[in-house]
Amino acid sequence: MTAQPTRLPAPRSEAVVDALRDAILTGRYAPGTRLVEENLAAAFGVSRIPLREALRRLEAEGLVLSSPNRGATVRPLAPKDVVDLYDVRVALESLALDHAARRYADLRETTKARAAQARTAIAKRDLPTLFRLDRDFHADMAAASDNPHLVAALAAQWSQIMRVMHAYFSAGDYPVDTWHDHAAIADAVALGDGDRAVAKLREHLIGSRDRILAGLRANGARP
Fold first, then answer.
1. Residues 91 and 200 in one domain
2. What's the CA gap between 31 and 74, in Å, rounded?
3. Does 204 lie in the same domain as 124?
4. What is the pLDDT of residues 115-152, one digit of tens each?
5. Does a structural domain hold residue 223?
6. Is-contact 40 17, C-beta < 8 A?
7. How far apart are CA 108 and CA 84, in angstroms?
8. Which of 25, 42, 145, 174 has the fewest CB atoms below 10 angstroms from its CB?
């Protein structure tokens, strides 16, 4: 039985968007699940007006599909979705690292501190914290490019990235080398070695992509 989301204190559209997005990203509403307005309104304790606005917003983010016959559903995940998403991610983050390295952006201490937090989260099997730390590392590297348009383009992908990570990584199989890779990337950027930073990033992201694809195919996902 699907866990019930937390009821909201007020029927505000932004609160409904955040709560429903979280329910999708963390898998409480799995890919392909029908999002019945009446049931969601009761679960979140809101009227249908903010709920419909939330569904429109999440459709724009690529998390929800709407059709005249079936209504709203959580967008399914197929191997092609993952490949396409990671193609975009590798391209944008590579550009960001190249610009950050030209500026000798030094995020080594921040990365070291996050790595320590990640070790604690791994010990506690705290997957949401691990994903937040991972997102913050990559977001800070993008910000170090000093290109707000690039930062915005990457930020627009994070809902999809987090959904994929929540769906196919568990605390038990979180890649143990993640923060070694992050440290290597931060070192290369701080030293102005954009080529090495980008090469390590590509290895890091493609490794994650391939693990996700293996999980999808093992579960019988279609292309």
1. yes
2. 5
3. yes
4. 999 999 988 888 889 989 999 999 999 999 999 999 99
5. no
6. no
7. 30
8. 42
Per the structure block, which two tokens stand in for 116? 């320590």
The residues near 156 (Cβ < 8 Å, ≥ 6 apart) are 61
Report residue 63 as tokens.
Answer: 């998390």
Domain CATH number, residue 22: 1.10.10.10
Measured distance CA(78)–CA(73) in Å, rounded:
15
Same domain, 58 and 87: no
pTM more than 0.70: yes
What is the reported pLDDT for 113?
Answer: 97
177 and 112 belong to one structural domain? yes
Q: Amino acid identity of 44?
A: F
Give me the number of domains the chain comprises. 2
CB 165 within 8 A of CB 85: no
* Radius of gyration in angstroms for the set of CA atoms belonging to the chain, rounded to a whole number: 19
Task: DSSP letter for 64, please.
Answer: E
Residues 117, 190, single domain; the answer is: yes
Q: Is 74 exposed, middle or buried (0-12, 13-18, 19+ CB in 10 A)?
A: buried
Torsion angle, alpha carbons of 9, 55, 164, 3, to 10: 50
